[in-house]
Automatic annotation (TrEMBL):
Transmembrane segments: 9-28, 34-56, 68-92, 104-126, 138-158, 170-189, 221-238, 250-271, 292-315, 321-342, 349-367
Source organism superkingdom: Bacteria
Pfam name, any one: Na_Ca_ex
The keyword Transmembrane helix is annotated on this UniProt entry: yes
Membrane topology of this protein: Multi-pass membrane protein
Protein name: Ca2+:H+ antiporter
GO MF, one annotated term: potassium:proton antiporter activity
Subcellular location: Membrane
Domain Sodium/calcium exchanger membrane region per the UniProt entry, residue ranges: 37-191, 225-366
Species, as recorded: Asanoa ferruginea
Gene Ontology cellular-component annotations: plasma membrane
Keywords assigned by UniProt, alphabetized: Membrane, Transmembrane, Transmembrane helix
């Protein structure tokens, strides 16, 4: 009797109910013209799904331990993000979708490497005067992100096989294979060979191994949370897509360029990772925050580019991946500042503020190019 009561209480918990309601709302409204009040309800479902995703990601992370837990949310979000990009490219016109993959991936890199990293460093430093992390693990992650971004987003601007900032078929194949191989190698290093480089370090110098120092949830609870995490992420991405026409109208009415829509959608999609990383920083686990941030950037490039390369076989129109000059400067500055941040293994509020300033510059220049 007590077991049945506990099960009933769990099934009526908001972290279970809200993802299901959000997915049902998505199914009912998908592909339809929506009234203003319906968009408002979808926005509420979107916010609830974000909070539920963070909760279930933390349950799964507590079960599998770090750094495996940090991979769960990053990879899950990226797979759904890839599906969304491919869907939009199939349904849209070639002229409007030619730069969609590039804009989405670059926005994800800027948001994760500057927005999430800056926010978590600032929170961690303000709470404990200094944010401490492992420079070996964070440095390797940043190096991988920089290499992936250069291979996929910088080289197309300078190659000459195709006119404009595009790859030839052979070049795109090489970039896709290299990105996938590099991402797979990093995951192997992070989770097996040098797992200790990615474990959280407290300001007192203590390494936190969640598998040894915390009572993990049961396998059944973790499996259910993993399922609900995927449901919540589908709701986040799908409802963000559903409210995007309203966002597009608002952006057009404000006189902003169309690329702002992509930035807004990327911000919404990355909300679960942002909240999870911030909560980790508040618990003095800045390394977990950096694992989430750089892991998300890495997955966004390492999984999206191969998927788009395969999809381009049957998709019509050009695939523009090369960044323009302003974005190239932002990416280069992000890498340089990131190196100076992670090498010491300790950061103050100043480093967090610098990264947030770069994030603000990215958003401002997207609005006012």
């Amino acid at each position: 009797m007590a077991g049945a009561t506990t099960k009933r209480a769990y099934l009526t918990n908001w972290t279970v109910v809200i993802p299901v309601v959000a997915v049902i709302a998505l199914g009912v409204t998908w592909g339809r013209d929506l009234a203003g009040w319906v968009v408002g309800l979808l926005a509420v479902c979107l916010a609830g799904a974000v909070l539920a995703a963070v909760h279930h990601a933390e349950v799964v992370a507590a079960r599998v331990g770090e750094p495996f837990g940090s991979l769960v949310l990053a990879v899950a979000v990226t797979f759904i993000e890839v599906a969304l990009i491919v869907t939009l490219m199939i349904s849209g016109t070639p002229e409007k979708t030619a730069t969609l993959a590039r804009d989405t991936v670059f926005s994800a890199v800027m948001i994760t490497c500057n927005g999430i990293v800056g926010l978590c460093l600032l929170v961690g430093a303000l709470r404990r005067r200094i944010a401490v992390f492992n420079p070996e693990g964070s440095g390797g992650a940043l190096a991988t992100v920089a290499t992936l971004a250069t291979l996929s987003l910088v080289f197309p601007t300078f190659t000459t096989s195709e006119p404009g900032p595009e790859f030839s078929g052979a070049q795109l194949t090489f970039a896709a294979v290299a990105s996938l191989a590099l991402y797979g190698l990093f995951v192997a290093v992070q989770t097996v060979r040098h797992r200790d480089y990615f474990l959280p370090i407290t300001t007192s110098g203590t390494v936190i191994d969640t598998e040894e120092h915390a009572d993990p949830p049961s396998n059944r609870a973790a499996q259910l949370s993993l399922l609900l995490l995927l449901v919540a992420l589908v709701a986040v991405v799908g409802n963000a897509k559903s409210v995007s026409p309203t966002i597009e109208k608002g952006v057009a009415a404000a006189g902003f360029p169309p690329t702002v829509v992509g930035v807004i959608i990327a911000l919404l999609v990355l909300l679960p990772e942002t909240l999870a990383a911030t909560r980790a920083a508040l618990r003095d686990r800045v390394q977990t925050s950096l694992n989430l941030a750089y892991g998300s950037a890495m997955a966004s490039i390492g999984l999206t580019i191969p998927a788009i390369a395969v999809a381009s076989i049957w998709l019509d129109g050009p695939l523009i991946l090369g960044l323009p000059a302003t974005q190239l400067v932002l990416l280069a500055l992000t890498v340089v500042v990131g190196i100076l941040t992670v090498v010491p293994g300790r950061a103050t509020a100043l480093q967090g503020g610098v990264h947030l300033a770069l994030m603000a510059a990215f958003v401002f220049l997207a609005v006012r190019p």
